[in-house]
Amino acid sequence: MLNEKVHALMNEQIAKELYSAYIYLDFANYFEEKGLDGFANWYMIQAQEERDHALLFYQYLHNNNARVDLLPIDKPDKALTSDIAVLRAGLEHEELVTGLINDIYHAAADVRDYRSMQFLDWFIAEQGEEEKNASDLITKYELYAGDSKGLYMLNSELAARVYTAPSLTLS
Ligand code: FEO
Questions:
Q1: With a 6 A CB cut-off, is 97 part of the ligand 1 pocket?
Q2: For each successive 10 residues of the chain (171 residues), what is the average pLDDT?
Q3: Measured from the CB, is residue 18 less than 6 Å from ligand 1?
Q4: How far apart are CA 98 and CA 108, in angstroms?
Q5: Is residue 94 within 6 Å of ligand 1 at its C-beta?
Q6: 31 CA to middle of ligand 1, Å?
Q7: pTM metric for this prediction
Q8: Strand, coil or helix: what is 155?
Q9: Could you give the CA distance from residue 27 to residue 43 in angstroms, rounded to a whole number?
Q10: Whole-angstrom Cα distance, residue 91 to residue 85?
């Protein structure tokens, strides 16, 4: 049986991951309106990945006979004042999510819940990747997007991103 605190944190994480999907949809919306379809594509795929993360927690709870209680999802609240502000808000958000995942891991470790720790290992690695992707995007923007040709090239690169299902699957 899942520890009460681990259960509550994982249940909350479903809404947090869906909130992540919602803010990335907001970012995609921002770039779509600006005509930067590659950036919009990149964040739309990011939103899909966040939905996948939410569903993994959902499935893990069900697989462990732990009740899922779907909580409200906050309205996207990032100030989208410029392209670089959006990119930076993405990195800041991923750092926050890393903290949330670490908190769940900590709670699982406290009660020697090795099964949950093993499940969470995937998210620990994923957060490393997510932070790196967000940080690389800022670096590329700062290096190359200073003129319209550079911005066009970067937008084209981001347009090529394709969705792939998570490497972790639960059934
Ligand atoms: Fe689900 Fe981007 O962390």
A1: yes
A2: 97 98 98 98 98 98 98 95 98 98 98 98 98 98 97 98 95 78
A3: no
A4: 15
A5: yes
A6: 20
A7: 0.97
A8: helix
A9: 6
A10: 10
Angle at 56 between CA 54 and CA 62, to 5 degrees: 105
Pick the CATH number of 4-159 from 1.10.10.10, 3.40.50.460, 1.20.1260.10, 3.30.470.20: 1.20.1260.10
Residue 141: its H or E element: helix 114-144
Residue 62 is predicted with a pLDDT of 98
Whole-number Å distance, alpha carbon 130 to ligand 1 midpoint, is: 7
DSSP codes, 40-104: HHHHHHHHHHHHHHHHHHHHHHHHTT----PPP-PPP-----SHHHHHHHHHHHHHHHHHHHHHH
How far away, in angstroms, is 88 Cα from ligand 1 center? Answer: 15
CA-nearest residue, atom 1 of ligand 1:
50
pLDDT at 171: 78
Residue in the block written with tokens 């670089």: 84
Backbone angles phi, psi at 111, to 5 degrees: -110, 15
